[in-house]
Amino acid sequence: MTRLTLLLVCAGAALTARASTIYSTGFEHPTFNTGQLVGQDDWVTDHTNSAARVQTSVVHSGYQAVKIDALPIVLDHWWWSAGHAYDPWGAGESVVQVETYMRLSSDYFRSESWGLDVYDSQVDRVGLWSVDDDNNLRVWNGTSGLDVDTGVDIARGQWYRFTARFDYRAGTYTVLVDGVQAGGTYPMGSTLDFGDADFRVTEPGFDKAYFDDFSVTTQPEPASLGLVLLAGVAGLRRRA
Ligand SMILES: [Ca+2]
Ligand SMILES: [Ca+2]
């Protein structure tokens, strides 16, 4: 086997272990039209209202993004796209990554929190991150049930990329902001499966949240990807 062939084999193995997509959207036309989010691309809510809308004024990329206005809401609310459950135990990849861009408005009377809430197919919580009314990024500890302050502050009026990475085998998860880990590694709640990932507001105030470029993907376990790369390096060294 030549070195080039070996490299190609290794690249192929790495590609096989690459992320696969469960759900991904930028809320763009023609999948989405401007107007109420609920009813488009299987998005639902636990209450009946039109507070979540696809709009063109504030976007992260493309021409459209979701805006959720807390003003007409009186109770905690969740919005999610249904029908994307994933069994990390039956499939090859047991890490599920949920990513979204979020931007909060700087209105005076703020909601208690905005964030992303992940559930299993039995509607038990898997994990949660949220930004509170004092701009603290908090991550839910699945053992204690507490929303732990990560020490990271999230400014109003600008976009951030939030990435939550759930390792079902380890039973833990991490949250990254613009690619940098916030806080530590936190115990997950349920590790049954992935059911849905929800935009959430609690104790709504007068502010707004914008969401764009939302995705749920499966990732190779860090260990198995490392083995693929190590095998490649070892193979090259033997032949050098
Ligand atoms: Ca968009
Ligand atoms: Ca703080």
Q: How would you describe the overall organization of this protein?
A:
With 240 residues, this protein is mostly beta strands. The chain folds into 2 domains: 39 residues; 199 residues, Jelly Rolls. 13% of the residues lie in helices and 43% in strands. It contains 2 helices and 16 strands. Strands 1, 2, 4, 5, 7, 12, 13, 14 and 16 form a 9-stranded antiparallel β-sheet that branches. Strands 3-6-15-8-9-10-11 form a 7-stranded antiparallel β-sheet, with no helix packed on it. The protein binds calcium ion (CA) (2 copies). One calcium ion binds next to loops.
Relative strand content: 35-45%
DSSP strand count: 16
Please give the CATH class of the largest domain.
Mainly Beta
Biggest sheet, open or closed, and with what strands and sense?
9 strands, antiparallel
In which range does the helix fraction lie?
A: 10-25%
What is the approximate shape? globular
Ligands (ions, cofactors included)? calcium ion
- Radius of gyration, whole Å: 20 Å
Using the coordinates shown, work out and report the CATH topology of the largest domain. Jelly Rolls
Number of domains: 2
- In N-to-C order, the SSE pattern is HEEEEEEEEEEEEEEEEH
Query: What is the number of helical segments per DSSP (H or I, 4+ residues)?
Result: 2
CATH architecture heading of the largest domain:
Sandwich
* Arithmetic mean of pLDDT: 89
In terms of per-residue confidence, which ranges show pLDDT below 50 for 5 or more consecutive residues? 1-16, 235-240
Structural class: mainly beta
Q: Give the distance, in angstroms, between the N- and C-terminal Cα atoms.
A: 12 Å
